Amino acid sequence: MKHSAQILLLAVCASISASSTPQANVRIPLEATNFVIDASKPYVYLEIDHVGPRKPMREGEPNVGIYLHLTNNCALPIVIVKFEDSPADPKTAISIEDEVVPNPQGPGGDVTGGSVYVEGRVPDLKEMDDIFRSPNLNEAEVSGAEWAQKQALQGTPQKDRPERPHGYNGGNAPTRVQLITLVPPGGKVFFSVPANHVSATWHFEIPFRLALPNKSRIRPPYSYLAFYQEDLKNAQAATPTTH
Fold first, then answer.
1. Rounded Cα gap, residues 25 and 170, in angstroms
2. Which residues contact 82 (CB under 8 A, 6 or more apart)?
3. Would the N or C end of the chain have less CB density within 10 A of its end CB?
């Protein structure tokens, strides 16, 4: 009798534990039809247009640039930062704020989160480990990535070491006047960055946030769109440029 009671108690505890886990048996919806305009694509994304000549905006920049489209694919407007002297013609590429960030280094030198596991029983979450591909410059994982890169380059002459350029952010912007710019649902922004903002060891990120009013003191979230060298290679392989 005592043994049966113990088994029953364990079964009840297991049931309570499973029901109290928020992620238990949760399925992520395949289509967020009320939020995403085109459910086959991310809610905000970058698409490459071409690689071609570009007038340098700062000293030391290459005269080649990467031209891209930023698309707001969600039902809410978003905001980005552009520069005041950007051309008004939508067919002409503008300049927007970006950050050039070292690629995070996981075990074996990959650029994922390393040994990251899925909590609970939500298998769809495994595809979301790219959250570690877009870190903030102040976070420890970026410092660790820079340290790993320096270690890998030990013994390489200084003149042969690649130097990560500054992005168009903060005091490194090519112009001092920066404008918060609204991108409406379904809207696109045509912009360019210098070709050296992407390499085998760093990538660039575009900061953005949903354009929702915040009437409380609770800090709202913001996000980044990342673009890696592998994205450039994949795009060029899929659609050879004619520019």
1. 44
2. 94, 95, 96, 97, 178, 179, 181, 189, 191
3. N
Q: Where are the domains of the chain?
A: 2-238
Q: What is the gyration radius of the CA atoms in the chain, in angstroms? A: 23
Segment 55-96, tens digit of pLDDT: 998 888 999 999 999 999 999 999 999 987 777 777 889 999
In this predicted model, what pLDDT tens digit does every residue of 110-126 receive, in sequence order? 444 455 565 666 666 65
* DSSP string covering 119-139: -SS-GGGGGGGGGGGS--TTS
The label of the residue with tokens 């090519």 reads 174
The tokens for 139 are 């976070």
Q: How many helices (H) and strands (E) does the chain have?
A: 3, 8
* Residue matched to tokens 């769109």: 225
pTM over 0.85: no
Euclidean distance between CA atoms 226 and 193, whole angstroms: 13
- Give the strands of the sheet with 188-194, arranged side by side: 44-53, 64-72, 188-194
